[in-house]
Amino acid sequence: MKTAIVLYGYLRTWNWCKDSIIDTMNLLCGDDKDWFIGLWNTTTSTQDNVNNYLKSKNQNIISSRWIDSSNNLLIKHYDTDKKNYIRVSGSSSGPAYLRQLISLDKRKYEYENNIKYDRVLFIRPDVIYYTNGLSAERYNGQLSHRGKDLALQIAGDFDDYYEIGGPSPSDLVPIAGCLSSDIYSHMYLDLTPPHDSLDKIHLRGGGCPHALLSEFTNTHMIRGRINFSDRRYFFPRIIRPNSDINRILSELHIWNGENLSYNGPGFEDYATWLRNERQDIFISQAIDMCKALNIDLEDYNLHVYATDTTNQKE
Amino acid sequence: MKLIAIDIDNTSNSDNFFTTAQELLGIELLKLQTFDITGPRYKYGNFSKASFALEDLLLSTPEYWSKDKPFINVLLTWGDYSTTGLEHLKKYQNIFDKDLIVFSTKGNIYSPNWVFGNIVAITKWAGSLFKVEDDMPTTRDIVTFTTDFNIPMWYATRIGLDVRVVNQLVNEM
């Protein structure tokens, strides 16, 4: 089963997560996988550093783009339209823009080389993966009986449970069949004014990017999967600069599959960051944490506050 | 009307067609590209090849989807370069954004000549057609048509486009 891995977004805590990401992709996909990379161009790392690290781990990179966030034309467009800008947040249009660009590279590569990827995994650089008895056989076995896989997996597991019109999907580790991945990657075009779905989104929950994803996948007949069982084989976790990374890494492979979603101390770091990311006291701490880890402030949109502080001093 | 016309089969006799489109009908021809059908090719491969060019254009030119500018339409042709059909094309220059207009001299989906629509609609539609295989629709998907062109039309509805078939002969009457 030939897999395209799309690594995209802000690098953020990539340096903490990269080994878990590569190990897990090796576990899930074996050797028959190619990497398509589209990362926002910040000082957190360089294109050479990221590419060379992946190559040192025997990963095959087909395409690598390092993109300035100002290239997201949709942001520019909605910047002059405050009403709609609120409804299409950067956390929706930014990733959609990257998916569109990377997908274009991928489709051209497929066309020119007369191949099709059986599936596409969309992954973030700031996520690590808990695994519990995970194997490629189990993973492929769960997917293979679908035959033509038109499903987009939007939860972090792969039980074959489909739903339409259900809860808003997360974007932690979507996986799609060859056609679904391309439809999913065309979402950016759907956000453009001639084709926007904004009125519907407005009705469903304002500018929530998850509502936007839900609307898009439902209207395009991309079936989401979500896991409601008590035990899991696989769980993605976002890592923030305030995460206790050494403790978390030590837990990855001794996890027993219990649900980690909404309880347990393991997620206090994320909840703390989320609750306080607009609080003045926490912002200064967050800036210090990023600087200590050589993470570009833009990766967490903190550069806005740093600039404000500078201006105030002047 | 601002139009990007693409002859996806690189037919030599299309030159006169496009000249007429520009000179006689007042169609502003923004771009004309033709593609050879040699090399790696899937069943609907040339549609994808056209979409690659359109997508590059869209992503680098926000004016093409700005609310403040007239929308750009795209015409894909692969045969029937009679200029009489262009009169029909003019009638549809103010189409809805999500319409996919299929022109057919026989008035049905069996033998389409051209496909016409907003640049975003055409790009989305053409973008992944080479991935679509004849046996792909499942029982959960409604297949409206039963011809060689059924899958492209099924795909159009799947991505939210409204397919409209225009019978050029009937319209002439």
Structural commentary:
The complex is a heterodimer of chains A (314) and B (173). By secondary structure, chain A is of the alpha/beta class. In chain A, 46% of the residues lie in helices and 15% in strands. Chain A contains 14 helices and ten strands. In chain A, the strands form two sheets. Chain A has an eight-stranded mixed sheet, with helices on both faces. In chain A, strands 5-10 form a two-stranded antiparallel ribbon. In chain A, strand 1 (3-9), helix 1 and strand 2 (33-40) form a beta-alpha-beta unit. In chain A, helix 5 packs across helix 7. The radius of gyration of chain A is 19 Å and the shape is globular. The N and C termini of chain A lie far apart (58 Å). Chain B is an alpha/beta fold and 173 residues long. Chain B has one domain (2-172): Spore Coat Polysaccharide Biosynthesis Protein SpsA, Chain A. Chain B is built from six helices and six strands; from the N terminus they run βαβαβαββααβα. Chain B has helices at 14-23, 45-60, 84-91, 119-127, 150-158, 168-172, and strands at 2-7, 28-34, 73-77, 99-104, 112-118, 162-167. The longest helix of chain B is centred in the N-terminal third of the chain and has 16 residues, at 45-60. The two termini of chain B are 24 Å apart. The A-B interface holds A 73-74, 76-77, 81, 100-101, 104, 107-108, 111-114, 116, 148, 150, 178-179, 182-183, 186, 189-190, 192-195, 219-221 and B 40, 42, 45, 48-49, 52, 55-56, 58-59, 62, 65-67, 71, 97-98, 118-121, 123-124, 127-128, 130-133, 135-136, 138, 140-141, 158-160.
CATH structural architecture of chain B: Alpha-Beta Complex
CATH C-level name of the largest domain in chain A = Alpha Beta
Share in β-strands of chain A: 15-25%
Helix and strand succession of chain B? EHEHEHEEHHEH
Binned, the helix content of chain A reads 40-55%
Please report the distance between the alpha carbons of the first and last residues of chain A.
Answer: 58 Å
Instruction: Kindly report the spatial arrangement of strands forming the biggest sheet of chain B.
Output: 2-1-3-5-4-6
Mean pLDDT over all positions of chain A: 77
- What oligomeric state best describes the polypeptide chains here? heterodimer
- What's the pLDDT, averaged over the residues of chain B? 72
Question: Measured on Cα atoms, how large is the radius of gyration of chain A?
Answer: 19 Å
What is the top-level CATH class of chain B?
Answer: Alpha Beta
Query: What is Rg of chain B?
Result: 15 Å
Order of helices and strands of chain A: EHEHEHHHEEHEEEHHHHEEHHHH
Per DSSP, what share of the residues of chain B sits in E-state strands of 2 or more residues? 15-25%
